[in-house]
Each structure stands twice: as structure tokens, then as C-alpha cells.
Amino acid sequence: MDPRITLITLGVDDLPRAIRFYRDGLGFPTDAGDDANIAFFMTGGVRLALYPRARLAEDIQEGLALAGPGFGGITLAHNVARRAQVDEALALATAAGATLLKPAQDTFWGGYSGYFADPDGYAWEVAWGPMFAFDERDQLIFA
pTM for the whole thing? Predict the structure, then answer.
């Protein structure tokens, strides 16, 4: 079996709000309406799902405690092909209701990146790097 990640599910507190943020604010394609029980978003590779946080915890294990607010030890990333796209993506996210966590800046690893948090507090990095390349399907290649 080949190792792969096919779906990332985010547990959210307000599913309709989260759907609107990703669908309407960021432009992630989905068939989900505001009244959906779960939402799946098509991306260039891994799919993104949104599901109510309490129901996701219950699905994992009955009585599982919900994590508190703050950094949960995970980030999601959106890598871009051009440096200017970092600023564009951060501006789009904040206009859609995200919180800017770290403005775009040069990084210690030779790239340019910044962070935002979605309405449920999930941290997203938007990053460009001269070492990043993309294939014909716009999938990230690590050299």
C-alpha cells in the first residue's frame, strides 16, 4: 500500500459559518450548502472536509474531551508558485474573515510566508520558496 493522505477533516464549531468561509470567502469548490451535515471541498490534491467538532470527537471515541482554544499543534499549508501570491492569499483570507497571525515575511529557510487562522482557529501557512516546483497538475514537487 502506498502511503498517502487523501482527506483532512477539520472539526468546526459552526458548520454553516465554516462552509461559507471556505466556499464563499476562499473559493474552495464544494457542492455543500449551508445546511449540510458535512462538507467536502475539492482541492488540487488532498480533499478537505468540515464536520461539527463535537460529532467528530464522538466519532473518534465516546466521551472524548474536546480540545481547548489555542494552537493544537498542526498547521495546514497553501504553497504558491510566485512570491506575490503569498500576500494575495493572505489578503483574500483576511477579507473572508480569517485572523492574520503573522504577516508575510522572509523566512529563515529562504522563502516568504505568513500565517492566518480560519474562524475555528486552524492555522494556515501561505508560503512561497525558490525550492518549490509544481508539476503540470499544479501539485507541489520537492526537489
Answer: 0.89
